Amino acid sequence: MRLNSPHINLISKACLKASRTLIRDFGEIENLQVATKAPGDFVTSADKKTEKIIINELQKAHPEYGIVTEETGVINKSNEKNRWIIDPIDGTLNFLNGVPQFAISVAYEENNEILCGVILNPITNEMYCAEKGNGAYLNNSRIRVSKKKKVQDSLLVTGGPKHTSNIKKKIFSEYIDISNKSSSVRKFGSAALDMAYVACGRFDGYWQREINLWDVAAGIVIVKEAGGLVDFFEEDNKFPLKRNILATNSGIHDELKVLISKKDIE
Ligand code: IPD
Ligand code: CA
Ligand code: CA
């Protein structure tokens, strides 16, 4: 890894430490206790354990920083200037089903800008990381977005809708519309890895409505540093942690944005 600011070092160490427990838990999936938060939204003991390890590591170095994390919520609310944004397991449903497509995602935000982030798939041992101004890496190799220029040639990825969504119809018709106009659309079940895959050129673009900030925070800096574009659309300021996101290789960005904003999709 060529990135070595104190923040990125800290995040990668915390992720690697947490991943050891996660790998063990993944191997023992049948013994995990599973509690249901809401349909389609499971919380496992592994989520909580992983989150605790990451928070402990980060707090040892910076007890004064704020933290936004999926399972615990907001910690140190008064510090909004320096924040860690954590998703201990992104792709919980995959994890629970023994599908090795999930990741730990941790970002550092300063003055509302994500400055660095790490996405680690503990099972494939792929660690994506980036730091503003210093490029994006997959393990030790620099990564870049793809060079596709047209949506019709592009392999895209999306996610959702959640069972609780009020705009399921819209999300499904958007999926059909964009599937018809692109090479194909995948749904892999981990927003963090979806973004990481855009950053390294495996996918040409990713979009998703009603995503949480912790799902995509690290991915934002990783895609940008790999030469891609990240955009939010139809923002609702009442819910700053909920987003509609579009992340692409930049070459197909405008075309995909127009398709997503089409008003006749209901
Ligand atoms: C989920 C994954 C999934 C996305 C959902 C997220 P979780 O995160 O990122 O790909 O479609 O919207 O909630 O619950 O596995 O951390
Ligand atoms: Ca998530
Ligand atoms: Ca999660």
What does this structure look like?
Helix content is 33%, strand content 30%. The chain has 266 residues and is of the alpha+beta class. The chain has helices at residues 6-27, 45-61, 92-96, 168-181, 191-199, 213-225, 253-260; strands at 34-38, 41-44, 66-69, 73-75, 82-90, 103-110, 113-121, 126-131, 136-138, 141-142, 155-158, 184-186, 205-212, 229-232, 242-248. The longest helix is centred in the first third of the chain and has 22 residues, at 6-27. The strands form 3 sheets. The chain has an 8-stranded mixed beta sheet with strand order 4-3-5-6-7-8-9-10, with helices on both faces. The protein is built from 7 helices and 15 strands. The chain is globular, with a radius of gyration of 18 Å. The protein has 2 domains: 6-142, Fructose-1,6-Bisphosphatase, subunit A, domain 1 (Fructose-1,6-Bisphosphatase, Chain A, domain 1, 2-Layer Sandwich), CATH 3.30.540.10; 151-265, D-Maltodextrin-Binding Protein, domain 2 (3-Layer(aba) Sandwich), CATH 3.40.190.80. Mean pLDDT is 92; it is low at 38-42. α1 runs antiparallel to α2 (45-61) and α5 runs parallel beside α6.
